[in-house]
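User: Please predict the structure of the protein below. I'd like the answer in structure-token form so I can feed it into my own downstream comparison script.

Assistant: Understood. Taking the following sequence of 401 residues as input:
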Amino acid sequence: MAKLMKRKTKTLIAIFIISVILSLKFPSEIEEEERAKRQKLENEEKTFSVFLQRESATSTRGGVVSLSDELHGLEYDFYRQNCPQAESIVRSTMARIYMQQNDISFGLLRLLFHDCFIKGCDASVFLDDSNGNKNRSIERQAAPNKTLRGSNEIDMIKEELDNACPGVVSCADTLALATRDAVVLAGGPFYPVFTGRRDSTQSYFDEAMDEIPKPNDNITRTLFLFSRRGFDERETVNLLGAHNVGKISCDFIRNRLTNFSGTGQPDASVDHDFLNELRLACQDSNRTNHDGTVASMTSRETRNSSSATIFQGLSASITSGARFDNHYYQNLLGGRGLLFADQQLMADENTARLVAVYASDDGTTFRRDFSRSMVKMSNLGVLTGTLGQVRNKCSFPTSQS
């Protein structure tokens, strides 16, 4: 009996060992499984984002959103037949540009925002004249647009597209696709871009002067301007979070440091220690080149002989690194927002609550919502079908080329 029990025990042990061995996987198998899981998640995210974009796409001709409007001709992979390589050309060219100037991402984000915010995403911000009328002011001359950058890079990408498919891909689509790819290159979230936009033949100087949010706007004005484009409070707070990758000319904050609103005193909402940091950072600001560029992912400040700019993550106490993260919101909680309009998000109970939400995790919530907000932004007031035109050069209507 004892021998029988011993044999049974050995058999059970052997079966257990064999089952454990069979359940083990080689490192290569584990890596393959992990890759498959990641790919599955990415595909699910893209699928969900495409569904979301169809649901949230709106049109804003005239600045008023109609939620009943549809995509009006925008499609996913619109150029699949007449220029199937279009999106890969944009992606590869954008990657080359980014390798040479990794500060381009927010430049393009800002360029897209200024274009879409005025009469929609129609590339009107690029126009150098208005239907040949040199006496008429254009968007590019409006004060908020004088510091825009990225138009040369869009011209470069458009040239590559036209070499492959002459006169097919619009400047508006080129900007929308390039901006998305630049966001991803900077560590930001992927979001799908439906294409088929056409370019405006008209520029809108007055609207650009009046309706683009300004660095010194209060929270009431900021929320009003965004709401006219159909963005609620959460979307507004989320979109402003794009400033997390920015650097700002000291010209935009000088009055906060010494003579806020003509009081002769600094802005009381600025943290005292932060105020001293800003004053030190901007001590050479009289030599700034007024470029107003927004570009870096670092959390340190910088100065050089030709410009005085401050990176958004100025404080070393709040890390940023090379991620499209949420340190912007963490800064606001500590009274360390660079722009008055940014810090004003803490002046309203609802927006302050949203700031706290975005600051509370590792940036996942911000990145998810930012993807959704950019989906909505990129569909504002698009021209499709027979509306507008496809420009040969982004700076001039086709008829003037």
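That's the full token string. DSSP finds 15 helices and three strands in the chain.
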